[in-house]
Every structure is written in structure tokens, then in C-alpha cells.
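Explain this fold:

***
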Amino acid sequence: MTSNLFAALSVPTASNIPTAMLLTKATIILLLALGMTVVMQRASAGARHLVWLVTVAALLFVPALTAWGPLPVRILPALPSAADQSSSIIGSKSHETNGIKTDEPGVNAPSPATNAAPSGKLANAAISESALKNGISILFLIWAAVVLVIAVSLGYATLVVRRIVNRARPLDTADWLNPLWEVSDRLALDEPPPGWRIASPEQVKPIAAALLAGRPVALVEEACRADWLRGGAVEWATDGDLRVVVTDRATAAEDALVLHPPVLALGIGCERGCAVEEVVTLVRDCLAEAGLTPAAVAAIVSVDLKVDEPAIHALAALLGVPARFFPASRLLDETARLTIRSEAAFRATGCWGVAEGAALAAAGIGGPLVLARRQSRHATCAIARSPAPLDAASIGRPRGHLAVIGIGPGDPTWRTPEASALLAEADDIVGYRLYLDLLGRAIAGKWRHDSTIGAEEERARLALDLAAEGRSVALVSSGDAGIYGLATLVFELIDREQRRDWSAIEITVAPGISAIQAAAARAGAPLGHDFCAISLSDLLTPWPVIRGRIEAAAAADFVVALYNPRSARRATHLAEATAILLAHRPPETPVVIARNLGRAGETHRILRLSELAEAEADMLSLILIGNRHTRLIAGEPPRLSSRHGACGVAGSACRPGGA
């Protein structure tokens, strides 16, 4: 491969270059690259500048240190030898010019005095030397490009690692344009890790400017170690006029950049239905007594019996932190560290102290109480401090959340932004297999729990059980979850079962575009006046009840939407419904049958009511039956309208049902 490269550039190659030389070069480059990365991370700014220049220079001149390379110091000395060899060959042969042999002494052989090559050979040698120099230049440019790629790659890799470790801001365009040492010095002081708060944002720019200028800045870690500040190449001073203070205290130096880490666990116990104002007042008094700032609170914690207590969640929302909950058995483990054991608390919850126990459980083994239990009339509060920043997501468990989502007929463009956001937030997705398949990449990487048609109650129970474990669950319905969807079934189960863990779940119902809306839009405007929807499925409603509703709707002249019109088990219900409707409206009444709305294979057609009984329809179909005022609007395609008084007058483009 090397020979081909040199040959393509008209550069002579040395066939005797040992492989060890090439391996030596690669090793030197690798060691230099690794050394540069380490030094760039840990050295001072001035040292990094120097090492950067030296490393780049060394990488450029590495080829000159081995047996071959693009630099002339290794190749040009070989030129005389090549010329001598060319001259000796020329001297032993007759010279040919344009294919004609000549015998002139001055031309056939070099002069003994000068041993000079003939003029043609001199020209060839000059061309060879020129080609060699051009090849050298090309190789040098290639090598310089390689060095540049290595340098940028190392800088980018260093930056990515630092940003991941420090959990600071993502890369931006400026990072690619700045030198590596300048990017490495940047700590993103205005974007600390999750949970940290900046008490004095006006001090960020002065401190950052001082660090970049090399001025001494002290790092004062009162509440905990700030490893994300110490992970870079910044050299912090032990003392100085400029300071970065990491504290959970409510008061701090006004001339310092004050950072509040999430180290406080605020334990709350309260009676059922305790007023939000009482809990908020108690917490404010406790923080003030301890001299602590609410900005250092990592989470509000309590026993899991309080998982749906409104006052606790209102407090968490006010402080902008999550509410987390422990089982009573976990709080029992903290009994030895409690300052007070409450018989009343044990009778009510199964543990000797809710506020102190929850705060200590959240802070961990090394986290002491900084404020023992304080009590108001209906609530208690205690505060513990963790020796390290707390990750609220790893504390206890949250209140479970169940989102009952209507995803529309199937087309992603018909899905509401709220539904998409809830799907993105969910850990578990529960639903009928076909509906989950329609979601595709929207639920990629999530726990999927699918089942067959007819297992609606099993799906609802599974979703409730998962949410009761503290998980975020999405229960998927097509169309709108509240229109022949699973939302009603969920609330029926909660009401019927009376399970405490189900009742404590936070439930959100997200509306979706229903099949009746989609079918009406495809057909024109058949729902412009009063209408109703009736399901022909008798799984949950007896057929005599359904038949009575059809008769009432027909007599009242409603536009009727029929869901679940026909299945293998219910082959005759559609024909019976058609007969009832024909008794109240003319046979030419327009009917729309829409199938697979918003999905592959979508169809929709218009026919007469008299043709409906024998029409093809299944569980994927929705049928819209017009009333006495529904008109078929001529056009391509034809459309339906059901507005009172707009049609049937002289000069109108509308006409009664029928083709």
C-alpha cells in the first residue's frame, strides 16, 4: 500500500523499510496523543498552551524521526545517490534521441573530467527531482491534515467526557471554534448539575472572568463537596477576595458566588386533609429556625400512606422539588436514630416517627438530623442533611401516575401534543397490540404490555397495578379514551374494588380525536346538528338495552353513529338496527361506512340506508347514518351535510338523500 502511494506521487520508495519502523511511528503518535490529553486535563493554563504547541510540532515532525516521511531531511539526501546510479547506467549504453542512435563521443558517454550526465538525462533528473518535491509537499499536507483531525478529535473527546462527568450544558457551536484549552477551562458555572440552585447569579460572570484570567478564586465547600467544580483543570485558591461558596445556609457572603446543593431531606407527617397553609407555615418556620435555605431542599419525604396527601404535594410544588415516599417498614429501620417515638404515629402508620424517620431514610446512614421534629396542630416536620448531593429519583418512590390516552384513529398527525408528551413521560405502555403497533417509534425503549382484543378489563387492572407501584403508566385507547375507551373502565374498577393503592394513583385522561369525528370529517359535515353514538357490542351492555336506545334515537331523528357494528359473534345486530332506523326515515337516507380511519388501507363510502343491512362492516368500521335533514352534496367526491333549513329550498345545490 505504501509503495502504491509513493508510486502514484512519482516518489521513489525504499523497499527495505521494516514494519517495526511503522509500528514505532504509530506508538509515538499514540503516546503523544495520550500525554496531551492528560496534560490538557490537569496542567495549568500556561503549561497547556506550551504542551499543545510542542505536541503539534512533534506530531508534524514524527515522520522525520523514522526511516521515511514527507519531510525532505530524510528523502533529499538520497538524490545524489540516485543521480550517480542514473549516470553510470547512461555511461554504459548508447544514447537514443527520438528513437535514433548516435555515436558522438560527447553524447554517448559522460566526460571523464566531470562525469556529467547528458542534457536529456539532466532534464529527466530535474523532472524527477521536481516530482519528488511535489510529492513531498502533498504528503506533508496529508500528514498535517491527519494531525489536525487528531487534535480536534482529542479536544472534542476531552470536552464530551468532561461534560458527561460534570453534567453541565451540551456542546454548542462556540465550543468547536474555541481552542481546546479555552473550552477545558469553562465550568459552565451558570448551569450546575440537576438539583443545584444559584443564589447569586449576578456573580457568575465576574467569577468566570477571574478564572479565565488566572486570578485566585477560593472554593468554600460548607455543605458538601462540589466534585463537578473540582473535576476540571481550574486551580482553586485556598483563600481570596473572590469566592465560590457551596452552602445550605440561608445567609451567605454577598460578594461571593453562592451555590445551594440538594442536600436537605424535609420530612413531613400530617393528618388526613391537613390544610396546605398549615404545612407551608410549619416548614417555613422550621427552615428559619435552622438557618437553612429552601433552595437546598432535595425532596419532600413521608410515609407511603401519605402518597396522595394534597398538602404534601402542594408543598413539593411550591418548593419545586419532588415528593417521595417510603413504606412504614423502611421508616422502622430508623427507629434508633429518632429523637422522639410517637405511639400515635405507630398506631396510625406502623412506624414510630414519620417526619424524622422519612428525613433520616432519605439522607442515608451518614446523614444526621439538623432539625429534630417540630409540630403544629395537625402536622410534623423534621430536616436531615446528606453528606453528598441527593438524587431525588433514587429516594423512596414517587406517587404513581396513570395516563389514559386517546391516540386518535391511528395517524400520528391526529395525535394531540398532550398525548405525545404523556407517552414520552411514561415508563410502561399498556394497550391492545394493534394500537401499540400504530404508535411505532413513539414508544420505543419503553416497557410494552400488549394484549388481544376483548381483554379490556385485564389491561385496565394491569395499568392500575403498575401505577400503584409508583410507576408512570400510559393506558392506550384508540380514538378518544372516554368514548367507548378504557377511561370509564378504569374509574369503574377503582370505585368497585375500593383498593387503597389504586385510589392513591394520580390519573390523567388525555382526549383524542374520536372515530366519529374522523369519519364525519371525511364525509363532509354530517354532524352539523344533534347526533348520538351507540355501540352494538353487547359485551358490557345487554342487547335489549341497546335496541331500545336505537329505537329512541331513530324516533328523535338523531344522526346516529354506530360503533362496533359487526363481529363474528354478532352477525345480526347491524341488520336489526337497520330495520329499526328504516321504520323512522326514508330508505334513501345517506349512510357513511368508514374503515381503518387514519391507517393504511383506509376506506370510506356512501350508500343508502336500505343497503346497510347487507353491507360489509366489521370492528374496524364506523357507520354514520343521516337523519331526515341530511343531504348529499353533489361533487367529486360527494359530501354530506345535516344542517337544518339550509337545504331543500329553491335554487339550492343540495338534494335529498340518494344518488
Remarks:
- DSSP finds 24 helices and 25 strands in the chain.
- The longest helix spans residues 119-166.
